[in-house]
Amino acid sequence: MSQSPRFRLRPWQNKLLSGLLTIFVATLLSFVLIRLMPGDFLALRANELVEQQGLPYATAYKIASTQFNYDPSVPVWQQFFNYIGGLLQGNLGTSMTLRIPVSAILWQALPWTLFLSLLSLSLSFGLGISLGILAAWYRRKRWFEALVNGLSVLSQAIPDFLIGLLLLVFLGVRLRWFPLRGAYDISTEPGLNLPFLLSALQHAILPALAFTLASVGGWILAMRAAALQVLSEDYLLVARAKGLKQGRIFARYLARNAIMPPVNSLAIAFASMISGSIFVEWMFAYPGIGYFFGYAIGNRDFTLLQGILLVSTITMVLANAAADALAAWIDPRVRS
């Protein structure tokens, strides 16, 4: 008796459905949790209106509700379906406090965060994998291994905002080598011109260093562990037994195979850096996603906060897909 063939999804279809489901669940959870945040922002605004204009509290509360374009009497489930309906039409809503479309804010802030994240990740990844593989290759030199391990532990022990504060005080305030706040000098004209690009790079150095110094330790440890595992493999011992040059063994056998685990984490680290940039960007008044995320939390701007979380979720899903594609490109065995 012949069995009917089962319907099977292709790998890319599974990943697509999994990504869409992740985005929907994350949107639902963040939508509900945001509205469970402590504090009634309408009551705070109403109290301000009462003190400033002497209005009755009921009138002030209605005015605050109109100003924020938020009606607390509407059930949460209805608010969610209204929000989803807007998303399907490409509408992320309007910021409750800034009174401009959330998409316009994100369109303005995302390039700055992408630029800062790419710069920071390039520096930390390049420095981390270089020191990590060298620490494994020269593991018999105790002083070098101790130096690299101490650097990695120190990097992971100090949070990025504390490193940023130290950089701000010493390199910004005392030595005055770099600007303290902002993304570029207001005297330059934004655009593809050399003065603006140099100013943007100069303003990004301190926050990028804060990210780099805080994350380089993780890359050192990951690369060192992967390299030590490769050094114990049989094919590396065979290569040495054949009398191959040390440089060829290092580049073709060790580095090429040891770099796979860190590369698989590269896209995830990039997405995490984008969504976790709140403290550093707020400290340096860098107008990226993290800066507006902190602003939205402080001002209870539900719509802006929801839009930023949605972008962060989409970034994480795309980063997972990029990590899989990158791993398959580097190592064809992953495709099978």
List keywords for this structure.
336 residues; mainly alpha; 14 helices
Share in helix: over 70%
Order of helices and strands: HHHHHHHHHHHHHH
| Spans of at least 5 consecutive residues with low confidence | none
Tell me the total number of β-strands. Answer: 0
What does the average pLDDT come to? 80
Overall SS class: mainly alpha
Distance between the termini: 32 Å
CATH architecture of the largest domain: Orthogonal Bundle
Shape: globular
According to CATH, the fold-level topology of the largest domain is: MetI-like fold
Strand percentage, roughly?
under 5%
Q: Gyration radius, to the nearest Å?
A: 25 Å
Total count of domains: 2
CATH superfamily placement of the largest domain: MetI-like
3D structure, described in words:
With 336 residues, this protein is mainly α. The chain folds into 2 domains: 18-88, no CATH class; 106-232 and 258-331, MetI-like (MetI-like fold, Orthogonal Bundle). The protein is built from 14 helices and no strands. It is globular and about 90 Å long. The relative contact order is 0.13. The mean pLDDT is 80.
